[in-house]
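[job 0412] stage=complex_fold ligand=magnesium ion status=START
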Amino acid sequence: MSDITKLSLNELIKNIRNKKLSSTEITNSFIERSEKSKKLNTYVTDNFSSALEAAKIFDEKPNMDLKLPGIPIAVKDLFCTNGVRTTAGSNILNNFIPPYESTVTQSMWDEGAILLGKLNCDEFAMGSSNETSFFGNVQNPISENLVPGGSSGGSSAALAANLTPVTIGTDTGGSIRQPASFTGTVGLKPTYGSCSRYGIVAFASSLDQAGPMSQNVKDTALLLEVISKFDNKDSTSIDFKRNKYSSELTNNIKGLKIGIPNEYRVEGMPKEIEGLWKKGIEIIKDCGAKTVDISLPTTKYALPTYYIVAPAEASSNLARYDGVKYGFRSEGENLIDMYEKTRSEGFGEEVKRRILIGTYVLSSGYYDAYYLKAQKVRQLIKKDFDYVYNNVDAILTPSTPSSAFKIGEKTNDPVSMYLNDIFTVPVNLAGLPGISIPAGIDNKGFPLGLQIIGKPFDEQTILNIAYSMEEKINFKNNITDWWM
Amino acid sequence: MDVMAKNNQFFIEREQNKYEVVIGLEVHAQVTSDSKLFSSSPTKFGAEPNTQVSLVDAAFPGMLPVINEFCVKQAIKTGIGLKAKINKKSIFDRKNYFYADLPQGYQISQYKYPIIGEGKVILDMADGQKEIGIERLHLEQDAGKSIHDIDPTNTFVDLNRSGVALMEIVSKPDLRSPDEVNAYIKKLRSIMRYLGTCDGNMQEGSLRADVNVSVRRQGDDNFGTRCEIKNVNSIKFMQMAIIYEANRQVDLIEEGKSIDQETRLFDTKKNETRSMRSKEDAHDYRYFPDPDLLPLEISDEFITQIKDEIPELPDEKKKRFIDKFNLSSYEANILVSDIDTSKYFEEVIKNSDVKLATNWITGELFAVLNEKNLEISESPVSSNNLSKLINLIKDGTISGKIAKTIFEEMIDGDKDPQIIVDQKGLKQESDPKALEELINKVIKHNTSKVEEYKSGKEKLFGFFVGQVMKESKGKGNPQLINKILKEKLNG
Amino acid sequence: MTIDLKTVKHISKLARISTDEKKANKLANDLNSIFKFIEALNELDTEKVEPLTSVADTKLRLREDKFEANNIRDKILKNSPDENKDYFVVPKVVE
Ligand SMILES: [Mg+2]
Ligand SMILES: [Zn+2]
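[job 0412] stage=complex_fold status=DONE, emitting structure tokens
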């Protein structure tokens, strides 16, 4: 086999089932390439030797009925992995080894997949460029000194650079879809409640969802099928009838009605993005679907709402990192001093900024003006979607307002960084499924993505739309291995 | 209500002024359940440190709460027992603060929308009944335990209790004296023990209270500034804390100073309250709905099902005892206040006389329990054997006096009274002929006393009874002896 | 609305994050620009809107009251910054 690492997930599975490739060969290939790609800084912790052992065990007694037979997969370092260090990209969890496994990763191992390693991410998933990680920024394989997006930036970069066949990320405000868009890959955020949050380091509980990232839509469908499961360990997990996403995948979307939201034509949107969107509309029509102009009037308030809700929840979720039970501790003269030093040195600047925003909006005298207000606006945002879904089957938008930017370009201006998520955040606030697929390049040659937003629990429809469009777009990432 | 208490007469007096004390309690009652409120760890008291701690209880990253249905049921039961409003929708909030024994950095509690709303508790005070309003009852997690005295430089933390379900029962500021506080806590405890929702064990910390105390001049309508005394774990300490705190506040007022609204701690060694600085700058709890949990919704069927399981509660039982058995209010109170006592009593009266049972339980049995410092559930005499003893008295087999001797023996190993009677031949002599013989003998030996009696010294009757009793070795039937003796002496 | 230094210090205290003067100044600046952006929400009339806490369209599930008696103290304490085998350990707390 010429280059195993270039194969898609479905191709790898086919080769394993045909006995053309062994799990060991595949695992070895990804490890070798990963070893040569350290410059990208995608791995926080590798699991290479254990992965090889597991591959050997699989090859000795292969079970081909599993959905991910012997497939090595690296995951975002926000998923707790039993016995393997889990940092959430933070100094405060620098030395944390969970004695348990997240439900989502467990589902993958149960289907035969093998943990390849833990991928870099923005600290506690707070960021849009992977620059807030304690373990340093990640290079986008598209071009040197380009951010891979965030917070699942290690995941998108490793995926685009063929260091892992597929990966999983988490998406609180766009953290799967935006990095997918920045790296020319596919990323799907499922409906809130589809994938269990058990064992995932929490950022904002009412928004966090795990989801698949892959080279193509078919791989995403398969991986979603594996990880989307009801889990009684998560009280917000929803017991709905899930499709067999991969076998039900079809490129027949004739007659579907796709909404084009007026309000996503934001001020100052680059021409290329506008052009990409238009192209997407044409392709959808080509596929036999209809497009309808729709209005989501509360859209412009989504980002401010998000920057109240997410930090508020985070300020509370991150209170457990206090130097008492696990993780980093800085010695102090007394308990309070220990807390303050531990948290001050253990957290990075962006995380502290968000904890303070969250603390402020919940504090006495400000709760109603900020937090309660945001919850009410969130209701309006959800109602916008509920309303248009009476009339359309899905919605098409750009994934991001720009392509990937240079490392360091936006680090001094938090608000401009936050604006990256302008198209993705409303989807989290409303709890909807959304997928980003690569749809073109800008004048710098950097990938651009289109986002398809679905009805709650209707992942199948957006997968089908994405699958149909993918065929027509025929996007190819142009990666030169410049880092090797 | 119509039986609003008369003045309970508890005032703090100074030269010029008389002050009334206003008290409200926040009682923390540990819910009786096998597992914790949001995790599957056991709740048993007294385990080795940190051996009943799950990943959820220790707040490991990514761990999530899943609520225990039984704890919800227990809260609703208690709500019914407090004649309170059951809220069909309630919300769990996070109360955010940092503390060594609070692993999540927040406590899951209920703030704006508690599971139980307003209710009431009736107290039986010496001068009549008094109603105490219940403001609310909510479910929340307990914290762990900080241990300060094992190590000189460090505090040790045991999380066994972390996550155990508590019911916080908040009273209205309706209490006016340490006596009422005593009665209130005992009544709450009694109701919960009847319901099986809290074992009420104060030594083990199953029942603790935050005591809110304020004072005001007699006749004043406005409440004074209150102080909250945290986590007092015995009724005696609550009473001591209230008396100390009320006096402290009165002194401040008398000196023309103002009272700071603050959290205080009761130092049991020094018998004083003092400001709890550690809590002061953490006052902003930043409550918000816990996004890991959805609103708790309770169906009508669920409530109906629970209502069907509610046993007869102390107030109703008392009324029934008074109406059906003609007990005095005082006797009924004693018998119903503790569920185990009431159970014992009802066991005994299944087959025997109510009046005798009441007297024997509240008299002899209680004396023994008191002396041996035992709970009625540990009684050395079973209800079955006490019932037998009462029947032996009732049917004339033994006299009340003999019964007391027999009872003394029963204590040792819960002996069957019938067997003692048989073995020792203690059966009462009720044969008139046999008794007449004994009486004749006594009369014969005391001719001069008989003369005295006949000439008017009627007091001597008791002497003759005593002598006959002595001749019968205590076994003579006293009623019969009385009757025959009277006939003989007067005839 | 502006967030002053005093406020930054107060919320830092609540959040148990120590800040020096310089950091507090920078934070105040950042927070002000973020809140300027957040305050767009005030344009919306939400008087009659129900707040939305969770989008999970489901009822709270109740778990059966069953305990799992597995003592995992070693696992729980293994990641603890202190070596003690029975307890979590923090600097002495004085009430
Ligand atoms: Mg309290
Ligand atoms: Zn409480």
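Residues 3-305 of chain B form one domain.
[job 0412] exit 0
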